[in-house]
Design brief:
Blueprint (H helix, E strand, L loop, with lengths): L2 H12 L7 E9 L5 E8 L4 E6 L5 E5 L4 E4 L2 E3 L32 E8 L2 E7 L7 E7 L4 E6 L3 E9 L11
Antiparallel strand pairs: 1-2, 1-11, 2-3, 3-4, 4-5, 5-6, 7-8, 8-9, 9-10, 10-11
């Protein structure tokens, strides 16, 4: 474990706006609930995404170019200058939305990291809740966070395909 490995992970996460479009299967578990699978198409470089729940077909999306959002298949108004929280299954593609940075309001902060092959394992601690910990796995090859595991949230990206064609930009 080293400080430079943690800095490498932070640099990858902070560079999210340069990540090209990718697709994957997102496995999301909230608290004690059963995990739900989504097909995810993410375009971090265009601040846009589409998640489709595999069992129900419900769609969750945000199109930054058109400023449109869809929540559980229903149109949802998006207005200029509004803070847009990504649907939970899309959040690893937009790591600044994760509560891991130690900012006011965040539960966790990154404390140390170790590297195994192309993966950086980052240990998370909750300063306000001693003993509450988590792990974030950053994929150096794809330049994305691929797993977050905490007691209240588990999110994994599997079968990552990159690059994939853009869905949201450019417009013809």
């Amino acid at each position: 474990m080293s400080d430079s490995t943690l800095l490498d992970a932070i640099a990858i996460l902070a560079d999210w706006r340069r990540i090209r479009a990718f697709s994957c299967i997102a496995l999301l578990r909230m608290g004690e609930d059963a995990a739900t699978e989504y097909d995810l198409h993410a375009e971090p470089n265009h601040s846009s995404y589409l998640c489709v729940e595999r069992i129900t077909g419900r769609r969750f999306s945000y199109d930054d170019y058109a400023r449109t959002r869809e929540t559980a298949g229903l149109p949802d108004a998006a207005v200029p200058y509004q803070f847009n929280s990504e649907m939970w299954a899309a959040r690893l593609a937009f790591p600044m939305s994760l509560n891991i940075w130690g900012r006011p309001g965040d539960t966790y902060r990154m404390v140390e990291a170790s590297r195994t092959d192309d993966l950086i394992h980052v240990r998370l601690e909750a300063p306000s809740h001693p003993g509450l910990e988590g792990i974030l796995i950053v994929d150096e090859k794809h330049g994305i966070a691929r797993e977050l595991d905490t007691p209240e949230l588990s999110l994994q990206y599997r079968n990552i395909q990159q690059p994939v064609p853009n869905r949201f930009w450019p417009r013809s």
